[in-house]
């Protein structure tokens, strides 16, 4: 029987302390995911009084439910960034998100965080010969053109590193890794508490008025308020037209034998995703379990969460049996995840134009993005950093305009924009 639980959360219990009095501080951070915790981390040694509010528990949302793929390649490959922004701007964005990746790794290693840290190269594979030509080869060439390491595998060579004969080639690159993101968030919470950051959980913010957040029956006032609530930003009347959500699903297998994992990854474990628009992805995690991610166009852009669609579970089972027909992979856990997105997959971050005490981070598709953005917004508070304000501004041009969005509505607008950005730009 498959369990509808976030497997990561079964490995460590959590306790929460809600805010129960009205208080004041120098900087208030709203959101206890990767972005909020990273912002608090960047501010922790500044001498400022920091308070963090989380509506549930740290790592309870998208950050703690994620696949834990720590790679700069999230929803947009490097080749797509070059097509959309040009080589110079693409490299600037890639280096930014890589800084987030490196920060996560340094935090884990310097604090000896036990979060299933596994060094695994990234492998982007083609599901057809056409996708190999249009997606894989351009990604390899883009990486080489900007000076990044890359290895291209044709269909016949791919079998040396991946135990499936059902792909048509791939591109591989190093310096990436996987983690249990929930354990990372919980560990970072403890580290921050020891540094003097005051953290209140089960403390949902219902509104922000000037420099005061209203939560439960209390208020928290601050000189600066940083909102890192990702897809929930519109609930606080922040970036309502610009942030939406997409839904994906994760499943975890029963532990595999060493012989099976060796046959699946003959040259070492890899983080794998394919070339479909609604793509499949997988990697080996704790206890030699296989983590599998998939979605469906039926559910990806719905405005509400679907807990366990059986057709997505069937998609996962069918996909793995087709790609690896010689192995029996039993699924033991299944859970959904929703993450915030912009219409072009580039995050949104900055200072509110009407309320200068308010800052925001959202639509960070991928944990490295969220980590880098948390640091960026903290540095904006401390030093006025602004070198990415243009890139992360909500006023940039999107494939679907706000005027058209008002006519065709948010789900269609975001689905259409994402297709244009990834395949027709």
The number of domains is 2
Largest sheet: 8 strands, mixed
Discrete helix count: 13
State the fourth-level CATH superfamily of the largest domain. Answer: FAD/NAD(P)-binding domain
Q: What would the CATH topology of the largest domain be?
A: FAD/NAD(P)-binding domain
Structural class: alpha+beta
Query: Spans with pLDDT under 50 lasting ≥5 residues?
Result: none
For the record, the CATH class of the largest domain is Alpha Beta
Strand content: 15-25%
CATH architecture assignment of the largest domain:
3-Layer(bba) Sandwich
Number of strands: 19
Radius of gyration: 21 Å
What does this structure look like?
The protein has 425 residues and is an alpha+beta fold. It folds into two domains: 7-65 and 181-240 and 344-394, FAD/NAD(P)-binding domain; 117-178 and 245-341, D-Amino Acid Oxidase, Chain A, domain 2, CATH 3.30.9.10. The protein is 34% helix and 24% strand. It contains 13 helices and 19 strands. It has helices at 34-43, 62-65, 78-85, 87-111, 129-145, 155-158, 181-194, 258-264, 297-300, 310-323, 367-383, 402-408, 410-423, and strands at residues 23-30, 50-53, 69-70, 118-119, 121-125, 151-154, 169-173, 177-178, 198-200, 205-209, 212-215, 218-227, 244-253, 270-274, 281-285, 289-294, 331-341, 348-351, 358-362. Strands 1, 2, 9, 10, 11, 12, 18 and 19 form an eight-stranded mixed beta sheet that branches. An eight-stranded mixed beta sheet has the order 6-7-5-14-15-16-13-17, sandwiched between helices.
């Amino acid at each position: 029987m498959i369990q509808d639980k976030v497997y990561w959360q079964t490995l460590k219990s959590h306790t929460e302390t809600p805010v129960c009095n009205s208080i004041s501080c120098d900087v208030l951070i709203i959101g206890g995911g990767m972005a909020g915790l990273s912002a608090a981390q960047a501010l922790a040694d500044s001498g400022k009084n920091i308070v963090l509010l989380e509506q549930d528990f740290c790592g309870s949302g998208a950050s703690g439910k994620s696949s834990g793929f720590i790679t700069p390649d999230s929803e947009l490959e490097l080749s797509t960034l070059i097509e959309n922004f040009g080589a110079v701007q693409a490299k600037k964005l890639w280096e930014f998100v890589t800084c987030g990746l490196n920060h996560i790794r340094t935090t884990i290693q310097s604090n000896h965080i036990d979060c299933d840290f596994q060094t695994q190269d990234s492998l982007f594979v083609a599901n057809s010969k056409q996708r190999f030509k249009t997606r894989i080869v351009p990604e390899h060439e883009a990486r080489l053109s900007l000076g990044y390491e890359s290895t291209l595998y044709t269909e016949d060579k791919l079998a040396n590193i991946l135990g499936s004969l059902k792909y048509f080639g791939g591109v591989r690159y190093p310096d990436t890794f996987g983690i249990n993101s929930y354990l990372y968030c919980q560990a970072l919470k403890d580290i921050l508490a020891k540094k003097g950051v005051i953290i209140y959980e089960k403390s949902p913010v219902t509104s922000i008025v000037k420099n005061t957040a209203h939560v439960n029956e209390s208020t928290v006032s601050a000189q600066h308020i940083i909102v890192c609530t990702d897809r929930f930003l519109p609930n606080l009347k922040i970036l309502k037209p610009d942030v939406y959500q997409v839904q994906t699903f994760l499943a975890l297998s029963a532990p595999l034998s060493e012989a099976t994992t060796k046959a699946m990854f003959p040259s070492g474990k890899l983080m794998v995703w394919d070339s479909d628009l609604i793509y499949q992805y997988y990697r080996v995690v704790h206890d030699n379990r296989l983590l599998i991610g998939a979605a469906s166009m039926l559910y990806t852009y719905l405005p509400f969460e679907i807990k366990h669609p059986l057709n997505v579970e069937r998609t996962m089972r069918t996909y793995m049996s087709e790609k690896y027909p010689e192995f029996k992979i039993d699924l033991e856990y299944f859970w959904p995840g929703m993450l915030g997105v912009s219409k072009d997959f580039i995050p949104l971050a900055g200072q509110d134009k009407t309320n200068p005490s308010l800052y925001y981070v959202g639509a960070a598709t991928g944990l490295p993005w969220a980590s880098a953005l948390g640091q960026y917004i903290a540095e904006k508070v401390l030093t006025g950093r602004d070198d990415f304000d243009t890139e992360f501004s909500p006023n940039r041009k999107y494939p679907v305009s706000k005027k058209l969005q008002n006519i065709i509505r948010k789900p269609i607008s975001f689905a259409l924009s994402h297709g244009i950005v990834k395949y027709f730009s």
